[in-house]
């Protein structure tokens, strides 16, 4: 992700904001003042204008609106409004009234930060969070004191529900699933079911008790599900947790496919539930900001060593100094990092005016880094939903944004896959751009026929290969290559037809990692083979028998990669011979 300043245009603003005020939606004046003073929100976005009155009314809601359209405040504002009006005034000892479930730690911190700002004047409403990677005892202490609005990742929440006796949730009124589909994709389905059972908020089954009967505030439960993309699993969660939900921002076709008819109330077809075309939809399936410019590039490309690599772009005299290839700060963020490093990278990148973030899908959802100018996808995203969320980190709330997707010639069918969801990309004129770069001694030379033979590319490749030739760098590059190839096999269903490792020209892939030769894919997994085999047999057997939940082993997408690597090492030593069955089990993580 590359951050830089961009301004929205006039016309885009009218597509984003509703022609009304927050107070006209029924929110308390003091809360409206806080939204303006603390967050700078003068008017509601379209999705906020649609969702806030419905959520205020107490209905269960399913919101499906484009990335960056303001869904967070759409659900937080009504909750704060009600809590602010509770009589007698709520106290910390009343425990938790609202629970916001999110898929990642960074999103947890982000939602908490927004709460913290908006609740500034309402000091008796206490925000807090619990999430994986944090100190449990400190969290227990905070829960004991009381948290009115709790943001949580599912695994850690379940842990506290089971093991923290002082966690009071008898007054719980709201359960909110932000990025509902991602929570389920990460394999938290069983945890969610357990959480709903423990909280007595499941719509079917004996455990259901939708009013907090022991509560001094007797309000019916209200559950909310939100995401820019929805899928079959969300349908299941919706059935499990929502009662007669109002669908916001969803075209009729999708409402039918979500198949919630049995739950839809008679007023589900009211005006306020109609299709929200104005939120920047370009598709009846997936919603993308209209001002987002999406491009793809059709070449094997270079692996740029962003923080250290120096390059002398033209083949001029040796005296000419080398320059850093990327002239801004670079950050990295992925699930295998230590929690503290993860937090620092997340918070620092957020503050930087001009910076580059290298990240895995841990950043794909919900994160709201300000002024991100461009999303570059070097690894293909897989499901179209993932594409939508990744590019959704830019072009937020009417800002302009660009995205660039790297595709190899054999992968061009991926564009058709995206088109099925109304997502269309134009080809990035790479050769033209390269031709515009200065070349030593050839001011206006152009008309190179191929990218590979372009002097600029050749000299860059040479410099990269020289840089990667150092032993440490070479090991890094080889590992990166192997991981990349392994991850390539992770595509499911239709996508397996497009991303076929057998069709890959591995020599070219190696070149894109600045390697002169293709590393061997055999024997690169450093796991004791005997242990691996035993482990694999155990996991496969247990999976088959249904006695182990793979989600217990894996919490995040990145870890599923190590498991895939593990199986690769175990089964054949070669990724492209991996057993289909095991693989599909891995893919359900
Ligand atoms: N009414 C508003 N006025 C001005 N800015 C707003 C308003 N509502 C939200 N924003 C800003 O818009 C940006 C996007 O909001 P938010 O992160 O809630 O979007 P989202 O719909 O949840 O996106 P995603 O689907 O990617 O999670 C944030 O920077 C937020 O501060």
TrEMBL record:
SMART domains: DEXDc, DUF4217, HELICc. InterPro entries: DEAD/DEAH_box_helicase_dom, Helicase_ATP-bd, Helicase_C-like, P-loop_NTPase, RNA-helicase_DEAD-box_CS, RNA_helicase_DEAD_Q_motif, SPB4-like_CTE. Residues 52-248 form the Helicase ATP-binding domain. Pfam families: CTE_SPB4, DEAD, Helicase_C. Its EC number is 3.6.4.13. It is an enzyme of class 3 (hydrolase). It catalyses: ATP + H2O = ADP + phosphate + H(+). Residues 291-445 form the Helicase C-terminal domain. Keywords: ATP-binding, Helicase, Hydrolase, Nucleotide-binding, RNA-binding. Residues 20-49 form the DEAD-box RNA helicase Q domain. A motif (Q motif) lies at residues 20-49. GO terms for molecular function: ATP binding; ATP hydrolysis activity; RNA binding; RNA helicase activity. RNA helicase. Belongs to the DEAD box helicase family. The Q motif is unique to and characteristic of the DEAD box family of RNA helicases and controls ATP binding and hydrolysis. This is ATP-dependent RNA helicase. It comes from Malus domestica.
